[in-house]
Amino acid sequence: MNSVLQNLSLGDIAIAALLVFVNGAVSVLLKLDLERKLAWAAVRTVVQLLAIGYVLGWVFSYDRWYVVLPLMALMTLIAGIAGSQRGERTYAGQRVDSIASIWVSAWLVAAVALFAVIRIRPWYQPQYAIPILGMILGNTLTGVSLGVERMMQELTARRDRVDSALALGATRWEAAQAPARDAVRAGMIPTLNQMAVVGVVSLPGMMTGQVLAGQSPLQAVRYQIVIMFLIAASSALGTVGAVLLAYRRVFSAEHRFLASRLVERPNDAKKRVA
Amino acid sequence: MKHPHTSSQRGGGGETDGVDGANRVPIVEAHQIARRDAPRGLTLLQPTDFALRGGERAALTGPSGSGKSVFLRTLALLDPLDGGAVRWNGHAVARPDIPNFRRHVAYLRQRPALLDGTVEDNLRYPYSLAVYRDEHFEAARVRAYFAAAGRAADFLARPASELSGGEAQIVALVRVLQLDPEVLLLDEPTASLDPDSVRAVEALVGAWFECSPAKRATVWVSHDLAQAARVGDRRLAMHAGVLQDTPDAAHEAALATTTPTTGHAR
Fold it and tell me: Which of residues 170-229 of A touch B (CB under 8 A)?
């Protein structure tokens, strides 16, 4: 199997890294002011992936639940925190809500995958459990962060309408419905787009990886189909969960819209100045 | 009402008979309601007692930022209370009953907030809410309101986004009036309107009040003292979060002449 796979040297990686300069040139030419962000993102890509390569190598060699499970928990925690760091506005408790919604949805769906679909034994075989959870988390966090960001935007922009609806006698849910619906839609659109073009426009990373590693394309495609549905289910669950949790934070049981709980993200202002 | 003694809070009301006493249970009554801006450590509304009875037209004036809006929004239970309680027809308002309370004690904001779509879409919107599930949209009635406000028959089909500020406020007002509230809490509804629209708004509210003058009541916030004199018999003033009630002769007279009613709409 691995006879097909061409090993990459650090020099090969350096050649690929040069491609980042394309982005840098665009940023400079168009005065996008993204050079610093770009450089930082590139450095993070290299460091994080190298680090995870070493960690995974170590975990795969151990193959114990008490090694795999904490790693999965750590991944989930990081995804949860990352999922709460988007948008100009936030609310007290967004991080907790983001972690909770991503944790519940991703682990539920990952459990279905590991116990019911792939049925590996033991279930924690890291070669399966970690990449599958990772893919689910990555997409769920996108859905959650886009969904909540949209919810905050809608509630800010439509604040007067929400207020009018409540004044007319709407329940808090009736008043929040339109923003919440738009938010869930915004969170699910990346996944839906991906599902619509998969195989035609894009060859997903996992499938590409399996094919590169010598797996037959037909098997790789089956895995990809499973993954797509796992991703879709988890990001839908996570987005709905996160939007509902946000809703409960900014609408009180007395059918009030607590607009003062929507606050501008503190470090966002700093970033804009820098 | 079942509790005749609840009418005894008002001084000098003891000599009235039981029928009149029923009329004197306030529709809305606030007891020591207060509002604070905790993060900034400001008091927005000092603990305030207030009662609004059927037949009362109160005008509330005061400088900008003195807490007029805060008071009105707190009375409508739209903003969280930092103390005190609001009673409706003599009863505390339980959480599930708050939408129904707001149906009957309607708050109209200064800047109208209309939905996308036509004027008619906006007027139909309340009927999609659970609290109005027994009511239905009456086009003829709404056309009569608009005719009274000097709007053409095709007004209902106009897109809400193309309305002028005055037209939008008239739509927002009709959206509330068609629902037959008991109390209107008007938060400077004409503050930025042209004179024609101001007259239309005042006339619409006046007509609504005269439909049932003993059972309806308003609190009208205004910057304009002349307007306050037109729309209010009872004068209220707000200064730095303190509400001053200045009952004058006209107000007492209005109370004395309100026709006794049997039964109490709720």
Answer: 170-171, 174
Pairing relationship of beta strands B91-92 and B85-88 according to DSSP bridges:
antiparallel
**For residues A228 and A206, is the Cβ–Cβ distance under 8 A?**
no
Strand B57-61 and strand B217-221: pairing? parallel
Q: How many domains does chain B have?
A: 1
Is A266 near chain B, with CB under 8 Å?
A: no
In a domain, B237, yes or no: yes
* Record: contact B77-A167, CB cut-off 8 A: no
Q: Spell out which residues of chain B touch residue A171, defining contact as CB-CB under 8 Å.
A: 99, 129-131
Establish if B126 belongs to a structural domain: yes
Long-range CB contact pairs, B202-206, < 8 A, 24+: B202/B227, B202/B230, B202/B231, B203/B148, B203/B149, B204/B145, B204/B148, B204/B149, B204/B170, B204/B173, B204/B174, B204/B177, B205/B173, B205/B177, B205/B231, B206/B231
Q: Is B179 on the interface with A (CB under 8 A)?
A: yes
CATH value at residue B247 = 3.40.50.300
E-state strands within B93-172: 105-108
Which residues of B are less than 8 Å from A166 in CB distance? 78, 102
Interface test with B, best of A91, A168, A261, A262 (most B CBs within 10 A): A168
Contact between B107 and A167 using a beta-carbon 8 Å cutoff: yes
B60 within domain boundaries: yes
* Chain A CB within 8 Å of residue B107 CB: yes
Domain span holding position B108: 54-77+96-257
- Confidence tier at B220 by pLDDT (50, 70, 90): very high
Looking at residue A257, the DSSP 8-state letter turns out to be: E
Q: Do A166 and B172 touch (CB under 8 A)?
A: no
- Choose between A207 and A101: higher pLDDT: A101
Question: Is any Cβ of chain A less than 8 angstroms from the Cβ of B172?
Answer: yes
- Confirm whether the ipTM is greater than 0.90: no
Confidence of residue A117 (pLDDT cuts 50, 70, 90): very high
Helix (H) or strand (E) holding A262: strand A262-264
Query: B195: which 2 tokens?
Result: 């004179």
Residue B220 belongs to a domain: yes
